Amino acid sequence: MIEVLVSEKLVVRVPCAVIEHNGKVLAGQRSAALSFPLQWEFPGGKLEKGETDEQALFREIMEELNVAVQIIDKLPETSKDQGWREIVLVPFVCKVDRIDFILTEHEQILWMDPADLPALDWTEADLNIIGYYYDYLAAKR
Description:
There is one protein chain. The chain is α+β, with helices and mostly antiparallel strands. The chain is built from two helices and seven strands; from the N terminus they run E-E-E-H-E-E-E-E-H. The protein has helices at residues 53-65, 124-140; strands at residues 10-21, 24-30, 40-41, 69-74, 78-81, 85-96, 106-112. Strands 1, 2, 3, 4, 5, 6 and 7 form a seven-stranded mixed sheet that branches. It starts with 9 loop residues before the first strand and ends with a helix.
């Protein structure tokens, strides 16, 4: 009998923040040096060993924007299978304590009217979050 070793697919959890402020939503443009260069995303980052989704979100937003987030609600998770790994985005609707951000990873940020979000070139997984966010907004009405 011949045995074939098959490596397990890497699953990466990435909590991210749909940050609301004065009726607008924050979009961040990824750095040209990162994967998915110059595409748009909701800020956040990879879960580290021993962290909860919420802890990772607080840490990542502090690292990327230098602000603290307050979680308002959780949206459904979405994933993107890249063959060798699966990215699982874990979106949270959030508020921030202030908006004088210090950008450490994004090329730029924009405050967008929710209706205008699809106009940007989003990563595929982040684009799915927009739909969940629209469902969230419709349920609040």
